[in-house]
Amino acid sequence: MHLSAFGAHRGVGLPVGPLTLLAGPSGSGKTTALRAYEALARLGGGAELGEVFPDPVAWVPERARPDAQGRRGFRIGCTADGPAGPVRLDLAVQAEPHLRVVGERLTSDGLVLLETALRDPARRTVQAAWHTAGATPVTRAPLPDDRLGTALLPLRVAGKTPGQRRVLAAAEQMVVALRSVFPCDPRPDVMRGPVPAGTGRLLGGCANLADVLWRTRAECGRRHAQFVAAVRAGCAGPVADVRAEPGSGGVVRARLDRGDGIRTDLGRLGDGELRYLALALVLLTGPGVLEIDAPGEVPAALQTLTVLADGLDRHLDVRQRTELLRLAARMSERGHIRLVGAVSDPSWAAGVDGITVVHLTP
Q1: pLDDT tens digits, residue range 206-248?
Q2: Which of 134, 139, 241, 343 sits 20 to 30 Å CA-CA off 352?
Q3: Helices in 124-208 by DSSP H: which ranges?
Q4: Is the peptide bond before 97 cis (omega within 30 degrees of 0)?
């Protein structure tokens, strides 16, 4: 992640590995960093700028002063590695007086593959130039100023020359890396009661956890058994199973089966137990179960899901935190999941291998 000028961050680079903890006190910018990651992911999926940044001024650095035309903005980006090599994306957004993309650059091995710039403020377009090679070094065309140009390239580039194919490979690598992102911050206050039966796709706040458990328990017995083992390791008392049961009025209620005839409603669990249970389910499922925009053109076996967990350690005791990280480490070893979590103090994670800890300061 590159936070050139975003919120409290200036000139910050954040390494993101398979298992990454952003650590620091309140006000150090942990949530801001996760918000930048989520924003890039949504833009990579084709979302409009106004949908991603409904309050764009909130992300302008506090000390940024407007220029002579009253313009202020922010800059974010990232580097994604893959078959095309390291590909870097840099994005400049104007927040005032009008929200728009004013510059974008996609580079690989020092070669500029795509570059856009705002030439005429009166038009809602940016002038784009992408690498072509051959008889024509670059191709120029206008692109809309409210979308990520990199995400539009597969629809604009013919792929007839080696240069064009290189541009397509880099753009597709970046878009695929960004799109499979699931921001998750379980809210115990909305997880305790029965929920309407619905699509079976888990929301970011996990309010429909019982509905999703109803689906996952029936669809994959092996994965459900792994989930039950994880719940047993992080919840108080015996746990023989985690059941979702239909009730009257089309609702579903989740309970812990204690193995002795007692079934405990989720409403009786503590906040830490509920957050632990929800995060364990997220780590053990995939794009087909989570409410995300997964790249359908990429085979499921090649997709990597990135879970963004704000307040990963909130309400969790040391045992729950450690068990959750061990589970994340096991899943990330398979190459299909990546966890980026924000924590206040990472000292409890010292015993878990494979963690990248990024310390942020106010």
Answers
A1: 999 999 998 888 888 888 999 999 999 999 999 999 999 888 8
A2: 241
A3: 149-156, 162-179
A4: yes
